[in-house]
Amino acid sequence: MFASSAQFQLPENLQHYRVDACVLNTSLLSVYQAWDSKLQRAVSMHIIRQQPLHPEIPSSPVILGSNDQDILYLQRARQGAALQHAAFIRIHALEEFDHQLILITEAVKGESFASWIQQHAGQRAIALKQVIHLASAIQEAHAAGLVVGDLRSANLLMDNAGVVRVPSLSLVLHQTTTSHRLDLTDDPHDELRHDVLALGLLLFEMMTGQMPDLSRTSLQDAVFPWPEKLPQDLRELIVAMTDLQQEQGLSCQQVAERCRHLLSQDSSSSSAAQLDLRHLQQEFLHQELQRSQRQRLGYWGMIAVLMVLIVGVSGWQLRPYFPQLVKYLTPYSESNEMAQAARNLTEYTYKTDAKLLDVAEAHLKKVLERNPEHAAAAAYMSILYLSKYNAEKRDEIWFQKAKASAQQAMALNAELAMSLVANARILQWHHRLEEALAMIVRARRLDPENLLSWHTNVSILLEMRRFSEAIPLAMQGANQFPLDRYLLDLQAGMYVSQKKYAEAERVLQKSLQRQPDSPLAYSLLAECLTAQERNADALQVIQQGLQVRPNANLYGALANAKFRVGEYADAADAFAQAVSPDKGIAGSYLRWFEYAEALMWVAGREPDAKRAYQRSLELLDIRFNRSPDDETLLSIKSMIMARLNDFSQARVLAKRTMALQSEDPYVHFWLAYTFELLHEREQALAEVKLSKHFGIPMRMLDTHPGLRDLRADSRYAGL
Question: What are the residue boundaries of the Protein kinase domain, all occurrences included (predicted)?
Fold first, then answer.
């Protein structure tokens, strides 16, 4: 038995999995946190030793002596890996080792669904939507010939994106949970119905905060003590879902349809109540008008006096309701408010003007005031809050708001494209790129006309350096959205990374034709020209961009141009603008890092440089705490620690970065710089060689002052 990760050694063909910690260890199963070094992602590793095919069948070894069971598990794993619903934890691989089966799945962070229920019990709309979400997932599993088997809340997970997740292991090793198991026949349809029964009990738990006590009576008994908080229509639904005595029980599709019907009734009732109120108000005004006409006075002076009295008295009585009256009398269109908010957020992608976010927020708040359960509005709010977080000083409140809004959107409608876009962006920020990619692909499939889903999809692929997929997708999107220039900018950035400067320049010129005041296009074009040693042209492009629309990217490009030619004081001045609240991004760890590095080479500015490094470290740690295995963050943090004279921590971080075996040339550049600061020349030279191998621009190696002594080493020329 594998008692701990320290004792657990994988064979050579599985050495790309790094086992980090054992989280569960039983006679039948061990579960480990692990790292896939090939695909650079966290995974969960399940070691399956033996498992009964059915509660009544004795356990037998998974591999030894049970070929039929081998085949069954393999078949289920293949079927489970093919499932597309967001609820299912993804199956990555099924391996064999030492007469055991090893199931590799995505690593999902979150809390148990049971804990989540305790915080959200009794919320009818959310409970019904969660049932719809799970019912559609179970329906897909049933269509594939799989049974979930154990749908207890303690075995489900609410992930950090607000999505209820079903463990893949239960699909492969399913057996009906004994907590609410009834006698089953050999008819496989009974097991399918048992999933519906378990879902009914989950609905009961979501509404009441606890499971029903079935020790003395069943839900179908007339004397069952139903909690008062559970309304009659939900009681009837739960009874129908949990009644296995009926010849034809409810299917998952029927459960989802009944839940949608109840939700639509709730929405209609709310609307009808408002309409009834308005009708009564109109009827009252009409009756008052008729009465006043019947009692028409003959003297205009008396009429005037009475009108003053009426208005005065009415105003006094209605004063507490003035804000509501103004709101409802103001012309309102939900579709117009949503469309305007979407336009503002899309425009913000092109022009990072905080006023656009404020205007979008006002439109979305109008929608949410009238309908707090508007999933699309919640999703757009998440994107808005995340934009504010990125634009300002990385105030954690904005990120938590973004995350909460994304979770709310998923809880309200997990099949809405915008809900998926919002959550994909949260996952991307957590650097959970595989999960983010799967979610955004679904979003784009659901709504191919959603431009933000295209932006997010390409940016995730770019961050994963999967350029062969990202560039064609960006080209397709640029053709589909002829007014958009952001996809062109992303495409050009990838060309620059691949040293395809002619292609990058062509695409950027097209971007500037679509939108002449595009700061990102100007900064990328300047980088492209600089790479071709066209420094004068690059500086001209930067100055032109600064005249059109100053922003952090352009000040950063100007600073880098000055830094490369040794004008460090001018570079520091430009970087100071890039981190200023007015003209740059005060919350960017990278901009503060670049600013600090420029200050280090200006006479008398070393104390300022140390403060800038410290600020960069504070901002970097916000991301590092969420993505501790991010190779870029690790490499830059190791160098910052060396600059702050914490050499032991710098060395530890550098070693961790090396273990990831990155193929990013800039990661190896910062490692080389770190080892040079640590006076470990041999290792610095080795990292320079790797940086060259993976394509670092030679001008960076040849001009950076931090490697001046290293370049003087006779061994440098031979690398």
Answer: 17-264
